[in-house]
Amino acid sequence: MPGTNTHLLPSRKSAVTLCLLGALILSGGPRAEAQRVRGELHVEVRDSQGSALVATAELVSDANQFRRTFQVGADGRVTAQDLPFGIYRLSLNAENFAPWNKLVEIRSEVPVRVVATLGVAPVTTEVQVKDSATLVDPGSTGTIYSIGRQSIGEEISTQPGRELSGLVNEQPGWLVEANGILHPRGSEYDVQYVFDGLPLTQNRSPAFAPAFDADEVESMRVLTASFPAEYGRKLGGIVEVTTTKDVPRGLHGQLDAEGGSFSTVTGSAALSYSAGKNRFSARGDGFHSNRYLDPPVLANFTNRGNASGYSASYERDFSEKDRLRITVTHNTVRFLVPNELIQEQAGQRQDITNSETAGQIFFQHTISPDLFLSLAGSVRDASATLTSNPLATPVIVAQNRGYREGYVRGDIAGHHGHHDWKTGVDSIFSPAHEALQYAITDPTQFDPGAQQRLQFADRRWDIEPSAYAQDQWHRGNWNVSAGLRFDHYGFVVKESAVSPRVGVARYVSSLNLLIHASYDRVFQTPAMENLLLASSPQLNSIDSVVLRLPVQPARANYYEVGATKSFFGNLRLDANIFRRDFHNYSDDDTLLDTGVSFPIAFAKARIAGEEVRLAVPHWGRFSGYLSYANQSGTGQGPITGGLFLGDKATNGLTDTSKFAVSQDQRNTLRARVRYEATKRTWLAFGGEYGSGLPVQIDSSPIDLNFLLSQYGYAIINQVNFDKGRVRPNYSLDVAAGAEMYHKEQRTAAFEIQAENLTDHVNVINFASLFSGTAVAPPRSVSARLKLTF
């Protein structure tokens, strides 16, 4: 087969052997499980005679934005799954019995068991435990931002598929560039989603992959420091996504219908059934929109998008100690690439289709009250195609790429004395393929030596085994987390690394104050998208001057010092100072003017900043937050990896100058206030401000006439060419909702949201290396009707 690298086969076998041996040593078999970093609570309710009681339970953690009500069955038992680590208030109520309250700590994947004995109401009284006791987690060694079900359920995005990324973007230190690409603390694409324990290290932005359905997500946690050692490969930021697991007994369902500006229509339907030890759920969703990506001009040419998907899961408790879960998902999104003015006049049309099918199996076994084993594996098939019509300019391009990823993992977690520990191994096995063709239609836009036509094809295996061990030590008001991780990377280059992690925290109970500091050694693998293309000798003749260097994994040291404090039992303040030092700093570039991006690397970079967030989980009828981030990022040459043509290739190895990284927005401010007018109605106001990203234009001097012909005056007016930055952007938003009907499990709710009320022209990027030029949506309105039964 053309492009097959047969010389990689011996090393591939060695890596497979290494991973399988590690798994066998740990778990006695070649199965493994996904990352969880969550525990569960087993509750047993009895009366004073020891008989089982039917009761209503409520579990609340303000620090985790977690609030769940569930029913204790006739056997007096109930299990709450996938609980983020932290402190919870557990409340139990049964008819003719006194209320029961207690604080419960979840610190490990080892299930916590609580046996509650309820007394007769006239005789027994209990001290009420307040939610304020859960506002600050004294056991944390770093800042974790939690996003609860209420925030997720009330989020409506103007552009489909961006609900979850929009919520993540509201957290300090995060930025969204063109087309919904998240950037945490100055990192380029190094975002790792962990979806129900399955780590997804590829680019999950709307232009690269189908989006998650927000309606099936119960909670999210966002991390940018103090990473557990089990997390690796992509560590700019971690987004843990957890779907609803505690399915109520019987048959239940949900229907959502949404519509709004840009002819956007979205719909989803879900069913769940629970009986005995079996739980089943299924979901389907889809959308249509005339504004899927962020266009380069106000006119929003050729920006239609459509998507469809489904998922199904089955879960069974074989006993109190054993659980099996199987999940299958499939999603496809088809959309057009937005045109610039010149491309629209020429009649260009470019179509992209992204498709993804995945299956996951998960098994857990409680070995003893202090020892927990979990095993799982997954297979994921992803593909992306790009086609252009004959009128495309300045280049006609066609692409077909994809991969089939196998992932296995095995972990053992335990509790002993003051220690909560965990150790495990995992590996990725992923054959990747890439094929690209292009034909230049306007030679005046390229160097005279540029190759007019190209046909490229290659395929190769990516194998990445790893192992880790970590421990969380608690004693008094001190907490220490320590971990060690080993990674091997074997795609285009072969490298290994050992990464230590440590975090220390001190809780001052009299002040409700937590002070913490952390250090993370990071080994980040290059982005997979088009990496074979950038690494292939087939491209040595693409231009008269070509520089092609293997893209090495990035190595970095992350430092953070911060504090968390509560005020008046209702306010929570998080403040952090951080610094990140990179070697082989990751970035990206494009092949000619095709829009096909690939990873590159520079010698070093430093990102530093401060973050502050004041949150009010609930204070009477009010809730909300105010956050501010100050950040600066500086990269430095020379080039250490990637494909470069023409002048970039000539100067790349000698240019050691410093430059502002593309995510270098110095000041970012966000705020939201929610008011619960009545028990069933609410109103919210929000806003955000950004001081603007850097502008990087290759040509000098700048040809304003040419830029005007491409983008128009309204876009050019939002760029400060003297300062080399996009002018500040801002948006004011308003939302409201009402529960129109509620009886037992049946509800009907309506929500409406308006964004960018002032209709300000917000330019996200201008002429950046890959993101190009992108404009945020103008004033827009969206509404949703949600039915449950």
Structure description:
- This protein has 789 residues and is mainly beta.
- Helices cover 8% and strands 57% of the residues.
- It has 8 helices and 42 strands.
- The protein has a 22-stranded antiparallel β-barrel.
- A hairpin with a 3-residue loop joins strand 9 (174-177) and strand 10 (181-184).
- The radius of gyration is 26 Å and the shape is globular.
- Mean pLDDT is 89; it is low at 1-34.
- Portion of residues within helices: under 10%
Shape assignment: globular
Note the beta-strand portion. Answer: over 45%
- Compute the gyration radius: what is it? 26 Å
Number of helices: 8
How does the major sheet shape up? 22 strands, antiparallel, barrel
Strand tally, please?
42
Question: What structural class do the secondary elements suggest?
Answer: mainly beta
Low confidence ranges: 1-34
Task: State the distance separating the first and last CA atoms.
Answer: 54 Å
Instruction: Give the overall average pLDDT.
Output: 89
Can you tag this structure with a few keywords?
single chain; 789 residues; mainly beta; five-stranded mixed beta sheet; 8 helices; 8% helix; 57% strand; globular; disordered N terminus
Detail the topology: elements first, then pairings.
Elements: H1 9-27, E1 38-47, E2 55-61, E3 66-72, E4 77-84, E5 86-93, E6 100-106, E7 112-118, E8 144-147, H2 149-154, H3 163-169, E9 174-177, E10 181-184, E11 191-195, E12 198-200, E13 217-223, E14 237-243, E15 250-260, E16 264-275, E17 278-289, E18 305-317, E19 322-336, H4 341-346, E20 350-368, E21 371-388, E22 395-416, E23 419-440, E24 453-475, E25 478-490, E26 494-508, E27 513-524, H5 531-535, E28 546-549, E29 554-567, E30 571-590, E31 597-619, E32 622-645, H6 647-652, E33 658-660, E34 667-678, E35 681-690, H7 704-711, H8 713-716, E36 719-720, E37 725-726, E38 729-743, E39 746-755, E40 763-768, E41 772-775, E42 780-788
